[in-house]
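#lab-general

N.A. 3:47 PM
ok so I finally got the sequence cleaned up, no stray characters, all 311 residues accounted for. can someone with queue access submit it? mine expired

B.Y. 3:52 PM
send it over

N.A. 3:53 PM
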Amino acid sequence: MSATRYTYLGPEGTFTEAALRTLPEAATRELVPMVSVPAALDAVRNGDAAAALVPIENSVEGGVTATLDELASGEPLMIYREVLLPIAFALLVRPGTKLSEIKTVTGHPVAQPQVRNWLRENLPDAVWESVASNADGARLVQEGRFDAAFAGEFAAATYGLEPLVTEIHDAENAETRFVLVGRPARPAAPTGADKTSVVLWLGEDHPGALLELLQEFAVRGVNLMLIQSRPTGAGIGNYCFAVDAEGHIADRRVGEALMGLKRICPNVRFLGSYPRAGVSPQDVRPLRRGTTDAEFTAASDWLARAQDGRA
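B.Y. 4:20 PM
back already:
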């Protein structure tokens, strides 16, 4: 395995590359662009890279299904870190292109909902065609395949383009969340401001089946930050659920919730416990009564004394 190589969703000039370069260790790694999320993750699975950075969630469009599906299937991988990157698009064109001359535009499918209103107001007749990444769209504009691409302004120089319009976003404070993924290993120690990600498969479908899963978290005071259903491929109505929960697997409340889920789910895939981006322990709201590690330990000690006749 190459311990110095990180892959990411390419080509050069993507928001994923920009997010990766915010990590301190990126300065000492070989950063290799890949053509797709599956390709970036497969490089980790087969030992060609130590880790991959891929998008997993957008504040406007929601979960990035390609990443969620890849993490839920195939050889297991684990999330070690997350990065939040503010997202604003530039309309990149070949030098000299005017707004009135733009008839075709392109970008990543996740970009379209973030610029839909701007397009309707400024380029109502332009035809949109999605491509594998925003940077790939910039490359295709360079080659003359499209008139303009929505991408990061930083991609303009890479592809010999110019930003005709900048700071395009329909939603203020739009962000994309990226995750650094590697092969499974022991999670880093808790920081006090952590997140745990899992994928859960429902057993027999019946009224309240999803509620049973959620109650394993709720009764232990574990707050959920994301829950998204994804088809399993086993037929209509068969779903698994990607879940992000506050806390670390080493926290008693989280660990016991996962044990409860393992008892009732046919399959549980642990995707990692890792620090929350941009959050310090001081920012985390206090736990409700009965959900701290000390209280779990005290309850366990009480049960042992009761079983021993000393309660």
